[in-house]
Amino acid sequence: MEKTCMDALPLTMNSSEKQEIVCIFGTGDFGRSLGLKMLQCGYSIVFGSRNPQKNNLLPNGAEVLSYSEAAKKSDIIIIAIHREHYDFLTELTEVLNGKILVDISNNLKINQYPESNAEYLAQLVPGAHVVKAFNTISAWALQSGALDASRQVFVCGNDSNAKQRVMDIVRNLGLTPMDQGSLTAAKEIEKYPLQLFPMWRFPFYLSAVLCIFLFFYCVIRDVIYPYVYEKKDNTFRMAISIPNRVFPITALTLLALVYLPGVIAAILQLYRGTKYRRFPDWLDHWMLCRKQLGLLALGFAFLHVLYTLVIPIRYYVRWRSGNLTVTQAILKKENPFSTSSAWLSDSYVALGILGFFLFVLLGITSLPSVSNAVNWREFRFVQSKLGYLTLILCTAHTLVYGGKRFLSPSNLRWYLPAAYVLGLIIPCTMLVIKFVLIMPCVDNTLTRIRQGWERNSKH
Amino acid sequence: MEKTCMDALPLTMNSSEKQEIVCIFGTGDFGRSLGLKMLQCGYSIVFGSRNPQKNNLLPNGAEVLSYSEAAKKSDIIIIAIHREHYDFLTELTEVLNGKILVDISNNLKINQYPESNAEYLAQLVPGAHVVKAFNTISAWALQSGALDASRQVFVCGNDSNAKQRVMDIVRNLGLTPMDQGSLTAAKEIEKYPLQLFPMWRFPFYLSAVLCIFLFFYCVIRDVIYPYVYEKKDNTFRMAISIPNRVFPITALTLLALVYLPGVIAAILQLYRGTKYRRFPDWLDHWMLCRKQLGLLALGFAFLHVLYTLVIPIRYYVRWRSGNLTVTQAILKKENPFSTSSAWLSDSYVALGILGFFLFVLLGITSLPSVSNAVNWREFRFVQSKLGYLTLILCTAHTLVYGGKRFLSPSNLRWYLPAAYVLGLIIPCTMLVIKFVLIMPCVDNTLTRIRQGWERNSKH
Amino acid sequence: MEKTCMDALPLTMNSSEKQEIVCIFGTGDFGRSLGLKMLQCGYSIVFGSRNPQKNNLLPNGAEVLSYSEAAKKSDIIIIAIHREHYDFLTELTEVLNGKILVDISNNLKINQYPESNAEYLAQLVPGAHVVKAFNTISAWALQSGALDASRQVFVCGNDSNAKQRVMDIVRNLGLTPMDQGSLTAAKEIEKYPLQLFPMWRFPFYLSAVLCIFLFFYCVIRDVIYPYVYEKKDNTFRMAISIPNRVFPITALTLLALVYLPGVIAAILQLYRGTKYRRFPDWLDHWMLCRKQLGLLALGFAFLHVLYTLVIPIRYYVRWRSGNLTVTQAILKKENPFSTSSAWLSDSYVALGILGFFLFVLLGITSLPSVSNAVNWREFRFVQSKLGYLTLILCTAHTLVYGGKRFLSPSNLRWYLPAAYVLGLIIPCTMLVIKFVLIMPCVDNTLTRIRQGWERNSKH
């Protein structure tokens, strides 16, 4: 009769052997946490330790024996020891023969050793069946029970029976095992918890490049040019004024780059006339980090909002408006109300506010729990339709901000236009192409291609 | 011996037949994703395809055969084909006899066909047992592993053994099956992924009606009236000034409507003297969309905060305050400091900030992951007590904003009061009724009724 | 053959007895919700009720019988009745003998009765096996399916076979059972849903103490002192000006207190020379509520941002700047532009914005769904490195805000420095100690101690 705690008893309830015994080598943080969790889920635990007497921190109900005695008690032995101490296991080769050894170890660096820890363990104890598991779960997550998205436990191993046993234990702990194949997959599994935001690398570097370029561009226009021509010391503008040009342009560019790969993919499919050819690798990779590009864009937009809202608090702005008013009072000058200026000013501010509001909505629906609570039709509605509306509003905000001075030659300094003009290039181009793509003639062809029609198909 | 991967092996580990074979008809996006996921969870997969040779995109380890050969290999056949192509299955009726067919299809529109896809399949292949499942899971969710809240897989079918087999597969993939009954439930299940925010319809339409009405009300008061009487062109106020009256009033009204059904329900229970009579349908439906009403209110409040914080940046405001200062300087007029104006101004701003802060807290606790991390006593504390505090602060904010001009007749234009007075009607009425309801005499009776006491009970 | 719905059928599918029958005593809200959920997961349900005829609200497919008849139909009986009515169960002692009784009850107050409800039930029906379960799940969560983080169901009982049966039911409903031991654990389990944010108590009281102290400190300096010496009525400053000093100082202090226990722990480990001695209890408890301290700090920082952004809207600020400008115009006084003031003003504002931005990032990664989507290396990077960067930026923001007046004696009123000077004490001290701790000599020793080296070790 099976021994897992998954089985219901027959009506007569006379099963005596209910609990499977699992052995854990090692009494460190992770070994103790895993043992306590398995006790709570109905297993019997036997610890193997160098010092069977010193066991004050172990959970109640677990035995502590020497390694060889503990190994005899169970089929499955979880090796909760650092790789550097694996060599002592060679002394236990006869005891471990035919057992299942579960390698849960992690290294400190990617590629710290030529072979993965699991393969090294398999070399040391060739008679045992080594299965890699549990290395993506932290001891803290096991203790606190916060196991929601780290519910996936990657499992790999050469022997499929051994893998099944370990996958059953994983399920009994309330986690979801993911079979990654043979033991050669262990290298990839061991790399997983050492990664630091891999999908964010490209968007982050791209943002840094954009920011640095735009910063120097603005410094040339706003600090160096006035110094050369008017001997004005505008260096203080590098604290708020110049970042408040760099951040919004970066945000708008990144937001346009979120939707650009979709447009490029549509053009590719129209050009090739089929949906069955793979996209180029760079386009695939770009499509995979669209969410990160969008969230970075939201971060820059949020900074832009904060930098804009503090404008009236700044000493420079208060001094300038005070000076203007004093001059106007002393000269008794008239300052008639310009309705067009009021419309322009209120319009671009209102467009910016509405664009930022929708942008925050997009960000909120990117949160894992919210994006999981909506079905995929709702998700596509928000991310695609509301996303394009956000892009349109933010582009309109920038265009109206330019106002009447938009393309006037008097605004060029050393033939360089204002920075926001640069920021408008990608979004405007993209919106024009997208507008062409939603024309009925083009859209019909694209829909047919996406439903399987091929221009050059032979079937 | 059972063949699922849920079983632990006996100590001797000599079970050879471990993996259940499942057949998938169709090699499109979803068929491939589902096949790969099932391979990772320990199943053997056999694909049935029109072109058994063209199989370059299929996951490793899966066989590809013709439909009839693939169908012979397994008990369970997942039909990953569009409904429009179901008719070829009639040729395979003898092979499919007695098998379990899993219908995973979705349509493009609600009620696109008179009967559900699952019932149509059951008509085509009457000898098979049709089970509806998996149609709420997207291929992307299967691949990326982001399966948290789409963990629920709705299952329905006429044969309970076939349903159990499919529910076991669902559990082995780490999902939770929900038995919805017989195959007649398939129509409802197929409607589920086509819905677009069904609970948000009523709150959204209500907000739109409120906004449009208040917009025209404010236009009459703030644009048309000054034009008729003073020939002033105030049209630019439609960009920011008027939205900044429409949004806060809509927010306050929607927030009051979140708590009003609870008050109405309490009055109904007091009036009827029992808790065992059902509420009217409109009250039930209103209670179900309270969360959506509250989140919409938070959205409008956030817009109001942004529109308010940009006030000093607007050209109109800068021109007006500059003009005021210049006039005062030229006329050498005294402008003594009014402590009561300072108190009023600072008070209503502070009340607004505190109300908005609590409102944001309410919104954060509405996020799925946060609301699941608190127990229901904590959730009720935040949503009920802090919610009423938010309503009180926001109502006080509006009352103090009115200040001394609140009900003065000089503020009526064409006998229409200022818009914020309209917005105060529902919240103030509600708070008064709630205050009456928490009086000890009334509250005691209500608590007894809610614990089961009936005024006219015969027992 | 087992009867749970977890089993896959053999290939021949001739198992007839598929569904386990469970009995539920009581037809209140929770009994009905639990019964419906269990029906959906494949169980047969039999209700026991006082009034077997009045069953209009029960789910379809469930039988309703009298208590004694219902009890005979099943092994497992869920007691969905309030503790106050348990005494009638003594009449059914013979029928209930040997059955599994599942106690799901909750009380209204912690320690409302001397013994737990489960132990009381065990005293009333000594022949049955009492298991405590399900009391942390609400009826609403069962109905709506929102079962993500309340997935954990605490289970305890004296008989391990009975516990296993109940744990199987829990798993079949898609929840995760957590075995808490024998029935004596029931008291703790029954306390769990009555708690109201237990980890937030200490941080909340600490914040309240800080706020009240700082409020009175600022009132003395900013309201009483000017009244005593200049007869100025500054009471209106209590609405916005004084809170805008109290909140940021509280935020900065709480943020420093988030990282201080880590620094103290490091000093302790260096002093003792080992990592194997337990920390004092107050340090352990402090470490456990670091997340709550940080989130409270973020809340106060958010309030500070809002109070700062409304500065230009306040009547007092507008009156003061208008007065200044008018005086300057009338006296025709020069007001030269001070570049150093512009740098100082822009710098501290920019530092504050960047610090707040990172603070919001920290808060977002504290959301349960986001913190579960990152691995522990990424989580530590954000919370530790970005956290210290946030602390440095906010401390620099406060230091630059002080500017040239920072420690000048002329800013002392009654020998009391400005409030922000008080707020700088803890952060600056902490950053200095942390700077010492990351010096290579000290850091190497600490790393060795944390990897297991002991200064006084005998091995």
Q: How would you characterize this protein structure?
A:
Chains A, B, C: The chain crosses the membrane at residues 204-229, 249-272, 293-317, 348-374, 386-402, 414-438. The structure is a homotrimer of 459-residue chains. Chain A is 54% helix and 8% strand. With 459 residues, chain A is an alpha/beta fold. The first copy, chain A, folds into 2 domains: 21-194, Rossmann fold, CATH 3.40.50.720; 198-451, Four Helix Bundle (Hemerythrin (Met), subunit A), CATH 1.20.120. In chain A, strand 4, helix 3 and strand 5 form a beta-alpha-beta unit. The first copy, chain A, is elongated, with a radius of gyration of 32 Å. Chain A starts with 20 loop residues before the first strand and ends in a 9-residue tail after the last helix. The interface between A and B is large, with 69 and 64 residues.
